Amino acid sequence: xxxxxxxxxxxxxxxxxxxxxxxxxxxxxxxxxxxxxxxxxxxxxxxxxxxxxxxxxxxxxxxxxxxxxxxxxxxxxxxxxxxxxxxxxxxxxxxxxxxxxxxxxxxxxxxxxxxxxxxxxxxxxxxxxxxxxxxxxxxxxxxxxxxxxxxxxxxxxxxxxxxxxxxxxxxxxxxxxxxxxxxxxxxxxxxxxxxxxxxxxxxxxxxxxxxxxxxxxxxxxxxxxxxxxxxxxxxxxxxxxxxxxxxxxxxxxxxxxxxxxxxxxxxxxxxxxxxxxxxxxxxxxxxxxxxxxxxxxxxxxxxxxxxxxxxxxxxxxxxxxxxxxxxxxxxxxxxxxxxxxxxxxxxxxxxxxxxxxxxxxxxxxxxxxxxxxxx
Length: 375
Prior knowledge:
With 375 residues, this protein is of the alpha/beta class. It has one domain (2-30, 61-336): Ribonuclease Z/Hydroxyacylglutathione hydrolase-like (Metallo-beta-lactamase, Chain A, 4-Layer Sandwich). The chain contains seven helices and 16 strands. The protein has helices at residues 2-12, 19-25, 150-158, 169-175, 244-251, 275-284, 307-319; strands spanning 30-31, 34-35, 82-86, 92-96, 99-103, 137-139, 162-166, 183-186, 191-194, 197-202, 222-226, 231-234, 254-260, 287-293, 322-323, 331-332. The strands form three sheets. It has a seven-stranded mixed sheet with strand order 8-7-6-5-4-3-16, covered by helices on one side. The termini are far apart. The relative contact order is 0.17. Residues 1-6 have low confidence and may be disordered.
């Protein structure tokens, strides 16, 4: 037991206290000693966390996943002014109007406080951290291990990056050696400047925690990244909620939306969007091209690993949406409408009729959002 505690301790992080806790307490989202969603979440956690350690056929790849190293491209800025490299799951590089942003960096082997236990990545990082271009800032959506990775944060800090994070997460970073003056904390609808970009924290519907005794001490968020010529929306981890039309009204049109589309389960439909609701969010924020994220690297839920792109493409055909699904590590310029060949294998997957993922409006299973008629 002592070994287990020692091996996890550096990664768990530090809960907010002092000035960090005081900042949390000023937030409209802080109630009863923790952050809370305006809309309650429904969870039927039968099987609970243990399902992460179980796998059924098709839930993990049975052959190597194709990846691409785009290091050579970074020597030249994108001709269009906007380039996106998806590294798998929600880890990305955005080259946006001359400013370079890393989103939810995850270069470690496992999404866990332990180096020897927990969901393991299916392939090595397609692009090593030291092959990235200059990094101006790192944007973090929340503090779950698949989005806030200590080793990646420290490596990017060593390269000179600053950090844009939701409320409370500065406590983790300071505990890992990041100076407070290199960290900007945001509440929902607050903004920060990074170079020519304005980065706005947008509401999401989720939770936080890193296996400490107290959860939801740090906020969860999405982001609108607004440049002089281009705009990007990133959902972060979220269930369906009532904020996206407002995001679209305030900040659209977005050239590309990066929306979490995988690791969903009908037992907890308010924690993650799933493919069909990802398309709904894409339409509500008024984005032109969708790149689905939060899939294709680790298994955190029971569905075929190839199911998110299959269901996204099926839903996109219903509404005429443009979807781009790059290979992990492939740098693409969304406004140039590149054609990316299908790179994942064909295998059985569940349709939305077979396995619907429908969020509740208020945490009550019988009160759900209306779904598009076409599947």
